[in-house]
Amino acid sequence: MVSIKRRERDAILQSLQAGVVPKIGLQHIQVGRKDEVEAIIKDLERIAENGSAVRFIIGRYGAGKSFFLNLARIVALEKKFVVVQADISPERRLYSTGGQARTLYSELMRNMCAGAKREGGALPGIVQRWVSDLDFKVREAGGGESELKKAIYEELKPLGDLVSGYDFATVISRYVEGFQKGDDVLMASALRWLYAEYTTKTQAKEELGVRYIIDDRDFYDYLKLMGTFVRMAGYSGLLVCLDEMGVLSHRLNNTQSRNSNFEMILRMVNDCLQGNVEGLGIIFAGTDDFLDDKRRGLASYEALASRLAENRFAIDGLKDFLGPVIRLQNLSAEDLYVLLFNIRNVFASGDPAKYLVPDEAINAFLNHCAQTLGSEFYQTPRDATKAFVGLLSVLAQNPGARWQDLIGTVELEQSIESNEELAVEASIDFELASFRL
């Protein structure tokens, strides 16, 4: 067994007990999803070869969507991708006129991961890497400051062909200027602009000499620009991971607002499927209702419904991962056993001599879960993992306790199904309805 660092151990156990996905150490507990992971790997290979990809990870609450997103992030980082990730919320949306889209872009940039920076904050390092590599090439060729300026102009010239590319290139140039002069204020201002933290054009013009700032309408255009830039900096591409997409379908009561966000999704889907962008991958994660609800979900938007329609021949266990939709299937009983086995190993920091329970305890726990939760147990592994970590935690802190006495005495409860909550919220619709007396 491989020894597990205490930092990873604590992060995994604390996250699982709270019912959330750990950002580090996923390799210690990953089970199943082999075909789904291979589909993502093929997407990443296509992106690295100047292609693009879009995926919709669909599953019920607790099925492992967030876990799968974090797994995709780890795989992408291993393949030298830059990854940005954020959760959709009413305050962070793909389209808005009140700053919510700009807030989402800022959150993505703050959470940027690359190389050794796997927990966010990688943007400054990426820009500095590009500047340093370019400066080294110029110096090695015997060039000076003037040659460096020309090289910067030539390197950034392709960005000018993209929407808003000129302003993006100008800000990068200003960062380089600050880097050369040792002007930390100018560099900080450039990064602030890249983080979409300027709210007025006047301030941006005074500090950077640019006439525009990143606002709501530029959200997707600047994602494409960033995808191009990270490739210039030597990375394979940009992977964008967006979780909790059900917020757009079931927590936006205004039909026009929902449709505007769906139109943005449609634009992103069209660009990625038709090959209109390079070096960019997008993964959306949401519940079944987000995709299938014909009243409020993507199925209610005809253009998206046709593009995301699943292969009718993929029935009776047959799979097709060529389309953009990946539905996370239930874990098998064997997968759940391995998952709990891995959690026991994490709790013991990878040392079998420190296992708190034997193998038969895992079997007894699984049988108890199956009897208590029924078929729902296999659909939401989150409930089982939370309960199992809780069991191990009690045993660790109470040396006199016996697992035989604990298993079977506690009645497990299924987590509240978010789809049901959303359905209740959706019923509170403030739009006008027609009626007849």
Topology:
Blueprint: H1 6-18, H2 34-48, E1 52-58, H3 65-78, E2 82-87, H4 100-110, H5 123-140, H6 145-156, H7 165-181, H8 184-194, H9 201-208, H10 219-232, E3 238-243, H11 246-250, H12 255-274, E4 280-286, H13 288-292, H14 302-307, E5 325-327, H15 333-347, H16 359-373, H17 376-379, H18 381-397, H19 403-406, H20 418-427
Parallel strand pairs: 1-4, 1-5, 2-3, 3-4
Helix pairs in contact: 1-18, 2-3, 5-6, 7-8, 15-16, 15-18
Overview of the molecule:
With 437 residues, this protein is an alpha/beta fold. The chain has a domain at 1-31 and 331-425. It has helices at residues 6-18, 34-48, 65-78, 100-110, 123-140, 145-156, 165-181, 184-194, 201-208, 219-232, 246-250, 255-274, 288-292, 302-307, 333-347, 359-373, 376-379, 381-397, 403-406, 418-427, and strands at 52-58, 82-87, 238-243, 280-286, 325-327. A 5-stranded parallel β-sheet has the order 2-3-4-1-5, sandwiched between helices. Helix 1 (6-18) packs across helix 18 (381-397). It is globular and about 75 Å long. Mean pLDDT is 85; it is low at 417-437.
Task: Summarize, please.
This protein has 437 residues and is α/β, with parallel strands linked by helices. It is built from 20 helices and five strands.
Low confidence ranges: 417-437
Shape: globular
Largest sheet properties: 5 strands, parallel
Amino- and carboxy-terminal Cα gap: 72 Å
User: What is the CA-based Rg, rounded?
Assistant: 24 Å
Spatial sequence of strands, sheet with the most strands: 2-3-4-1-5
* Helix count, DSSP H or I runs of 4 or more residues: 20
**Counted beta strands:** 5
Helical residue percent band: 40-55%
Coarse structural class: alpha/beta
What is the ordering of alpha helices and beta strands?
A: HHEHEHHHHHHHEHHEHHEHHHHHH
Strand content: 5-15%
